[in-house]
Amino acid sequence: MKELWTEKFRPKTVDGYVFVDDTQREQVQTWIKEGSIPHLMLSGSAATGKTTLAKILINELGVDEYDVMWANGSKEARKVEWVDRLISFCQTMPFGAFKVVLIDEADYEP
Asked: pTM of this prediction?
């Protein structure tokens, strides 16, 4: 199976992630230890690790794959049909402790 280089070498755990500072590392580790994350909006320049950090949190918290809704904000997340799927997803009970909606590239402007 072919895999994108960026996905193949993307860190899967907090230990492989490069944090800005120790305060950021401690905050993320606290969320993982508590088993809960707040509502987050990660922002910053391209290629600073926002998506990687989101995927690490999902992985470290053991969120079931059926409890994660992925969307590319530059494509499907701007369509009415996607909003209907989002509403439906959010109205169902999670398989695990909670659900995650990850909208990547949410700030995309065509």
From this structure: 0.87
